[in-house]
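Q: Give me a protein?
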Amino acid sequence: MTILIRFISKNAAGGIEARDRQFDTDILTIGRATDQLLQLRDRRARLQHARIEKRGNDYHLTTRAIAGVTINGRSQRDSRLADGDVIEVGANILKVIDAPEGIDLALTFELNGGGNDEDITDWTSIEPGIGGLSKRRLSWSLLTAVLLGAFLLPLLLGTEQWWLAGPVHSAHSTISEECEACHIKAFERVPDVACVECHEVTRHVQQSQHTVMGVVRCASCHLEHNEPQQLVKQQQSLCTDCHLQLPDDVALQSAGDFLDAHPDFNVSLLLPGATVTDDWREEHIPLVNAAGQDRSNLKFDHAAHLDADGIVTPDGKRVMECAECHVADTGGARFQPISMDERCSSCHSLAFDPADPTRVVPHGDAEAVVQSLVEYYSARLLGGEPAANGQRLRRPGQSLTRAERDRAAAEARDKALNVAADLFERQACSNCHDVTKTEDDEFPWRVNPVRLTQHFFAHAEFSHAAHDNDAAACDSCHSASDSVSATDVLIPDIDNCRGCHGSGIARRNGGGQITSTCVQCHGFHTDEKGSYP
């Protein structure tokens, strides 16, 4: 890559002078050492302090310095560079500028204060004679004190707990006394292999299958021995450093902050195949394009059921509530699947004989409906139903002939088909289902199967339990009372959520907005990405 560095300084007259220098290199090294391409003059900088390299279509600055590098006022150790970024290392100031034609990356370089040597401090200088000791003796004295106080004394007194950097999270309480379970080697960082001994984790990769987190350890995102005890780092920069500007070959939308740099929602809908025999498929589409797309094969009118004046039920007129049908699951995050027998049958009866109102046909299987009707009317005609004395063909002690049995079976089937036609086409089934007539003489109706989408956000987590409060009633997010079709997608858009949820940076929020970072809704380890090796 070709890098242009514009060195800016002040001349004796106070004017600004600029001198350009061009580098053709894969990596721009930055530090005080003479072998660094860009030499820094401040002794607070390390000999090899930082480096700039190209990753995909972006340029990243990385450093191993404990204090990192200050970029736009924040200390960072790995950051993607963008036009306008200001990089500070002591008195050295670099700024990313718009690259001229033929240049991949352009930077300006100047010293704070215009280049005066007075601004270049010697961080390591110690006045000789402190406490009557030279720098060498003072260093050895401090080292000895650290060894005695931090290592030997706790070991002799049996108080190894002094070595703990902080409390152990409750999730690791069972191994809180077994330091070696995670710290495999003394004075070395916890390796990933120590984590995967207990945890089956997945790798985070782009859809192009390029590993983007291969050099990042588990402990880079998971903290232990910290207050408050949170195993997952909450800093938004962990995600936005990569997701703010994604490469063109990644099939994801860039996202930086929920308040003003987040794409509109996409929803996952469960849709039927082209024919009734095809498998159902899950389709991920933008919410703005999802109107009328929830083709579950169900006919349902939310507005009619949520009429403020009430609806007519077998028990009289009453006003229905959402919770009568939408019942939270055990965890409260989602809802239990809606069942006709449990949620609908109290109002929508499947009774078919006014003379026997407790007898109903089964729900969910068209063939079973016809079969149950045939069996019912056969039993009545043949004397199997004690309550139907007037319809018996056989008297006690009397046997029917073969012809009488055939005639009874045909009569029962004709009666069953007439009743079934009324159920399928007029009274019950067609009110909620798409029913088609077939050429099959035995089972002449087909009811298109119904499958309801259970989870609209396939790549995000949402908990209804967390929103179960007076400020978040059902109709504050879902416009169900205005919906007259089951094809409506009643998921609120992102602006609705921004009424309560704001930026991941607390100081940007006002009016009581909830600070909302990426990890509140999005997980990192995803099953479809494959196991970590």
User: Anything to note?
Assistant: The chain has four domains: 2-119, 142-234, 266-338+452-492, 366-447. Residues 114-126, 206-211, 386-392 have pLDDT under 50 and may be disordered.
